[in-house]
């Protein structure tokens, strides 16, 4: 494992870790709202590292990256896109596959809007969020998020802890093992409430970006996701002609935790396909449509 300090958008210091085969093609993992790189433990400690260079970022305001409290550090899409570009450029990643969980769907689209697809091979949206506005609440974004967001953005510590505990529990269909739950809860609590709130002050519509993607896209989504509803995944499929779907039954917002073996196999196949330029879709249980 190697640790890197990357200078991101606006000069912010970003914490990045990497594992695996440094001479192999890259998979670049980007976590969701109020998380950090530790959520990808079942991936970077897996056999994926034998054939890929695995890189995981702590988003600005999260984990071990710098976390200024001013909202202006989190509301400009150019900053988010600049962070992704900085990691790719400063670590010399070779046409990585971007894997974006939840809020990282916004971050990846921010990158695409400014930088396009020339430097990447493909994208795996995992419970990916692509639309953020009032009409999305209750239709695309569900109670697993909405029921806890007020407490999660409160400066009152007891209220904050209760909201985050319930949010983490709601991210999975079945209860996580105790150690995994404790790591997830601790990772969430590291993020200041003001940062969590700032991330939600944007109004986002990425339909135009998604419609123009010209690299392979895999949409991975739990059928029982109450945080980012399956309707968000269906919307992505409707507006992104490049996308195919992998639906996970009896799975919530974190397929990479709840069904790690299947997720890793599908990601392996998808990354091989995307980075090979093959005209044939990957095997490994990826279903088209729905």
UniProtKB/TrEMBL annotation:
Query: Locate the AB hydrolase-1 domain: which residues?
Result: 27-264
Q: SUPFAM superfamilies from the xrefs? A: alpha/beta-Hydrolases
Q: Which organism is it from?
A: Rhizobium grahamii CCGE 502
Q: Which GO terms describe its cellular component?
A: membrane
The source's domain of life comes to: Bacteria
Q: Which Gene3D superfamilies match?
A: alpha/beta hydrolase
Keyword annotations of the record:
Hydrolase
Q: Which GO terms describe its molecular function?
A: hydrolase activity
Name used for this protein in its record:
Putative hydrolase
Question: InterPro entries recorded for this chain?
Answer: AB_hydrolase_1 (IPR000073), AB_hydrolase_fold (IPR029058), AB_hydrolase_sf (IPR050266), Epox_hydrolase-like (IPR000639)
Q: Which PANTHER family match?
A: AB HYDROLASE SUPERFAMILY PROTEIN YCLE (PTHR43798:SF31), MONOACYLGLYCEROL LIPASE (PTHR43798)
